[in-house]
Amino acid sequence: MEIPVIKNEEYIVEIIDNGYEGEGIAKINNFTVFIPGAIKNEKLKILIVKVLSSHAYAKIVEIIEKSPYRVEEDCKTYKRCGGCNLRHIDYEETLNMKQRMVQNLINKNLENAEKIKVNPIIGMGNPYNYRNKAQYPVGLNKQGEPVIGVFAKRSHEIIPMRNCLIQNPISEQIAFLIYKFIKENNISVYNENTREGLFRHIVIKTGIRTHEIMCILVINGKKIPKENELIEMLVKTYNVKTIIKNINTKNTNVILGSDNIIIHGDGYIYDILGEYTFKISPMSFYQINPVQAEVLYNVALEMANFDKDDIVFDMYCGIGTIGIFASKFVKKVYGIEIVEQAINDCKENAKMNGIDNIEFLVGDTPKVFSKLLSDKQIYPDGIIVDPPRKGLDEVTISNILAVQPTKLVYISCNPATLVRDVKLLLEKYDIMGIQPVDIFPFTSHVECVAVLQLKENM
Q1: Cα–Cα 20 to 30 A to 144, which of 83, 210, 413, 414?
Q2: Contact at 8 Å (CB) between 347 and 367?
C-alpha cells in the first residue's frame, strides 16, 4: 500500500476517536494518523512529524472546529512533561473517554463482549493536588546550571515547573527549598553523561490525613555538605517528620537505590485509609491517590461479597492495604509481596490495627503462591490480585485455573493487560462486573476492578 501522507506536509483532518493515551485519531485515505492534544469530532489542520509503514504522527497547526469539551489550559508545562496529558479536556469528558477506552478493549478482545458492560467510572470530587508522592529529578540544564522539575516525556531533559495542579503543593515547596539550598551552597548535582555530581532526586511522601511528611534525598555518594543545616531548615520550615538519605551510585533509571540512611526521625510516616492506619516506608508501595484508593477498595470488596468463612489470598499486597480492608469480611487473609520492607510494614500495620486473621509472606508472587498450594496445602476460596502494569504471569494464571477459587478480584492499573488476562481466565470464570475508578485525574491512566465468579459447572 502506498503511504498517503508525507512528513512535514500539512493536511485538514477530522478526529474520529481518541486512543488509549488520549491522543486524537484521524484517517487520511484510510491511513491512521495519531495527533496528541486532539479531541474526538474536532476538525484540524495538522503537520505530519513522523511517518511509519502502518501509521503516522502529527501535531496540531490550527483548530478549525473546536470540540465543546476543549477547555482553557491551566498549566504551561503539561504538554511537555506528560504528567497529565488530558488537561485540555473537560474533566467529566475525560471520565467518559476512559470508560469508552475500557469498553473498547473488551469489545475487541473478548467473546460475547456485548454482554459485558463496563460500569460508569467513579470520578473524583476534587480532581486537583491529589498525589501524595512527588519525585523531582535534579540535574543540569543545557547551560550547565542546576535545575529541578520533571522529566520531559520520553526524555531525560528536566523541565522546570511550578504550581503543579496534581501534586500536593507542600511537596513542591519543600523540593524548591532544597533546590535553593543546593544552589546557595554550591552543592553539585548529578550529570547523567559523566555520572558525577551529588544530588539526583528529591522524593516527598505525605500523609493526606495525618499531614506527616517524609523527605528522601537521593544522592550519588554518602555525605551531603552542610547536612545538619539542611535537616534543621526542613524541620523548622515545614515540620518534616523524617528525612532519609538514599544512596544510588548506579548508572540506572531506577530512582531509589537500596541503601537508606535515616538522618532525621524514625524513617516512616503514617496515614489513615478508611478506618485503618498505615505505616509507609521509603521503599514501600502506597497508592498515589489515597482518596480514590479508599473508594477502589470499598467497591472491590462490595462487588466481591466474600463470605465470613472464606480464605483469601492477597497477591502483590504492597503494604497490606486491600488485605487489611478485606480482613473483617473473611476468615483468613494471606498477603504476598516481593519487597521485604513492605512485608515488614504489612506485619506492623496488621498489629497496629489489631488484626490477627492476616498473615504476610515475602517472595516472588508466583513462587509463594505455588508454595502455599503444594507445600502447605492451603487453598483459597477467593483471590485478590493487584499486579504491576505487565499484569499476571502464566504461572499465576495456571495456578488460579487449577485451584479454582470461587471468586477472583482483579485490580488493574492497565486495562490492556487486564483484558488479556481475563480472556484466559474466562475458560472457567464469568465476569460479574468491571468498575473503573479514576485514580489519576487528567491523565490517560485508569484503574479497574474486575470481579470474576467460578462457573457453576466447574
Answers
A1: 83
A2: no
Number of structural domains found in the chain: 3
Query: Residue 35: which H helix or E strand, with range?
Result: strand 31-35
CA distances from 131 to 62, 138, 200, 204 (A): 33, 20, 21, 10
DSSP-assigned letters across all residues of 301-321: HHHH---TT-EEEEES-TTTH
Instruction: Count CB-CB contacts under 10 A for residue 85.
Output: 21
Find the length of the chain. Answer: 458
CB 138 within 8 A of CB 179: yes
Using CA atoms, how far residue 267 sits from 343, 345, 411, in Å, is 16, 12, 29
HSE-CB of 315 using CA atoms within 13 angstroms: 28
Domain range enclosing 425: 109-125+287-454
Q: How far is CA 217 from CA 148, 241, 256, 343, in A?
A: 13, 14, 9, 23
Q: Answer for the pair 11, 75: CB distance below 8 angstroms, yes or no.
A: no
CATH number at residue 153: 2.40.50.1070
Same domain, 54 and 155: no
Respond yes or no: is residue 81 known to be catalytic: no
Does the structure show a pLDDT above 70 at 313?
yes
In a domain, 56, yes or no: yes
pLDDT tier for residue 255 given thresholds of 50, 70 and 90: very high
Rounded CA-CA distance 226/222 in Å is 13
Contact (Cβ atoms closer than 8 angstroms) between residue 372 and residue 360: no
C-alpha R_g of the chain: 24
Inside any domain, residue 97:
no
> What sign results for the dihedral spanned by CA atoms 352, 356, 357, 362?
positive
Give the model confidence (pLDDT) of 49-84 as tens digits.
Answer: 999 999 999 999 999 999 999 999 888 888 888 788
Q: How far is CA 368 from CA 111, 333, 334, 359, 452, in A?
A: 32, 14, 10, 13, 22
User: Are residues 361 and 336 in contact, defined by beta-carbon separation less than 8 angstroms?
Assistant: yes
Q: What is the pLDDT of residues 84-118, one digit of tens each?
A: 889 999 999 999 999 999 999 999 999 888 889 99
Q: How far is CA 102 from CA 21, 114, 120, in A?
A: 12, 13, 11
pTM, whole model, 2 decimals? 0.91
Are 165 and 267 in a shared domain?
yes
Domain with residue 423: its CATH number is 3.40.50.150
DSSP 8-state class, residue 378? -
Q: Say if CB 224 and CB 187 are below 8 A apart.
A: yes
Choosing from 81, 164, 215, 413, the catalytic residue is 413
User: Which helix (H) or strand (E) is 382 found in, with range?
Assistant: strand 382-385
What distance in Å separates the CA atoms of residue 98 and residue 421, rounded to the nearest whole number? Answer: 19
